[in-house]
Amino acid sequence: MMRRRNKRTDEIQEELVHRQAADTEARKLSRIVEAIPMAIVLTDMEGKIEYVNPALLALGGYSSDRDIIGKPIFSFTNPEGVERLRGEVIPALLTGETWRGEMGVRNEDGSFIPSEMVTSLITDREGNPEYLLASFIDMTAPRKAAAKLIKSEHRYHRLVDSANSYIFTIFFEDGQPVRSVHNPTCLTVTGYTPGEFEADFNLWSEMVPEEDRGIIRKQSSRLLAGDAPEEIEYRIKRKDGEIRWVLATVVPTYDGQGNLVSFDGLVRDITQQKLAEDKLNEYGEKLEEMVDKKTAALRKTVDLMAGREVRMLGLKKAIKLLRGQIEEMGMIPVANDPLKMGSRQ
Amino acid sequence: MEEMVEKKTATLRKTIDLMSGREVRMMELKKAIKLLRAQIEEMGMVPVADDPIKE
Predict the structure, then answer these.
(1) Among B16, B32, B49, whose Cβ lies nearest the Cβ of A321?
(2) For the whole model, what pTM was predicted?
């Protein structure tokens, strides 16, 4: 009897230890779930929400779980989400699979947050389905970033594919250019195909007339020295012999030791722009010439006018003397200084 | 630049107008000298001054 009681006490103590360990484990898990930044929802097998963690409340902008607990999970997603839950998620879980995919989560203001949902089934000790566990990751920011990237790529392709520009890459070894790669639109700008550039490495530099090669050499020196590259303008001689102006923008790549490995260049045909600039300069020069001519004529006129003023003073003086001579003789002069008499000056 | 040309042309035109006015006045002065000299000469005297820009 005594032995049996001792055995029972041992069993109770052992169970107590197990329960304490399980309780500790449960508390630990609970703390993890509460602290985890991933939004978590636990529902019963009918889809009724039994638990949400703080990250889910934050995701949906809810101030507390009061309005969530006890409600069906279907009321927290959009119509597409409901269809997906019924048609894909629950059937997958009931066959023991985990479901992963997109799911809109209803915000407190009624809008839906695009989320990545992962669901799994929690079973009891006997393997019977007990709960549905769903975790959510807010995809708003990644989606925006993806959209931005797509837009940026679109702009890049539009730039590269435009008829008057192309991209090339020059590879360096020991400070010397050894290989070049030109994209297909180089044909429009230069008249040469990428294959022709590949077959003749020096072609890209030989296209540049001798008088402009100094600009290229200066740019290369700058890149090799690790200095920031500048946009440069120079001429190229197309395959058909036509001279075109181009604007080149380059982006260098250096290895860990600071050695130039390659540079990517964007070449844009600016011939039309250059021609327009030349015309504008020519027009400006003509106008300046015209202004100079008019100014010279004006100066001549002013000089002439100043001479007339001096002569006019001489005439007025002569009139004064003649009138004085007549008046001295007691006579009245037959004429007066016409400028003395009133309105005219 | 065109605006500048317009301005200069307007100034030039004004100057020319002014100058042509001066020419008319000079003619009047010359005419007065001629009359006064004739009056003195009619009295049998020699005028003390002549038209300084007589051509």
Answers:
(1) B49
(2) 0.40
